Amino acid sequence: MPPRVPHSARLEIIKYCSEGVPQREMCRRAERSMTAVNCIIQAYRQDNDRFDDAPRPGPRSTSEEHDLLIIAAITDDPFGTAGEIRENVSLDISEATIIRRLNEAGLNGCIGAQKPFITEGQRVQRLAFARAHEAWSVDDWAEVVFSDESTFSSRWDQQRRVWRP
């Protein structure tokens, strides 16, 4: 959330507005963005001469204990959705609130990597290789150079989200 504009700066911007100063000049004098100046002027004109910040929502909808339950639920199942967590924890809060609590805990939703499945042809080749070499001794295998390099492709058709720090 952007920092709040102090009350004195709001009064100054409203004063400039009543004097007919152009908005660009107001921005320069008050050292505020055009968006901030616009919001202050609109709030003053539309909300019965309101100078202060808009009223904020009520108290926090979850307790610290509920927050820990949400984090524990996603730790048990990192692929769970916010709706599933809400059902598992039995909380009467929105999915957006659950996502905010997870973000506050340092957990971000991202699309998990997928390993490619083995095809039928690959399975047949592996089985043929295993049968051809099942009689090899330890000395035979000692002559083989193993490498851990592999080529794979990520699939994009089933993007499943996962929660990670």
Automatic annotation (TrEMBL):
GO CC annotation terms, alphabetical: nucleus
Single GO MF annotation: DNA binding
SUPFAM superfamilies found in the cross-reference section: Homeodomain-like (SSF46689)
Primary subcellular site in the record, as a coarse category: nucleus
Domain Transposase Tc1-like: 70-133
Cellular compartments annotated: Nucleus
Pfam families given in the database record: HTH_Tnp_Tc3_2 (PF01498)
GO BP annotations listed: DNA integration; DNA transposition
InterPro entries xrefs: Homeodomain-like_sf, RNaseH_sf, Transposase_Tc1-like
Taxonomy, superkingdom: Eukaryota
Name the record gives this protein: Transposase Tc1-like domain-containing protein
